[in-house]
Amino acid sequence: MKESVQKMSGRKKYKGERYSFFRDKKLGHGGNGAVYDVKLEEKDDLGFPVVAKFFEYSGDDKEKRYNSVNCNRK
């Protein structure tokens, strides 16, 4: 996922393979991150609320933890 900042609003825009979105209200958190309500940039209404989980890890070997073979499961 790519991250950029919109110049007019200063909000971060996150771009995935299919959708671009803005992070909105924090809904909760768990053991490895927080869940946020997101607003899609596209005009398409999916007909249901959309959320995204942002992983948070402050320990050592952060890149190794999230880029391991186990994280690439489908």
Automatic annotation (TrEMBL):
ATP binds at K53. InterPro entries: Protein_kinase_ATP_BS. The keyword Nucleotide-binding applies. Keywords: ATP-binding, Nucleotide-binding. The keyword Nucleotide-binding applies. It comes from the Bacteria. PROSITE patterns: PROTEIN_KINASE_ATP. GO terms for molecular function: ATP binding. This is Protein kinase domain-containing protein.
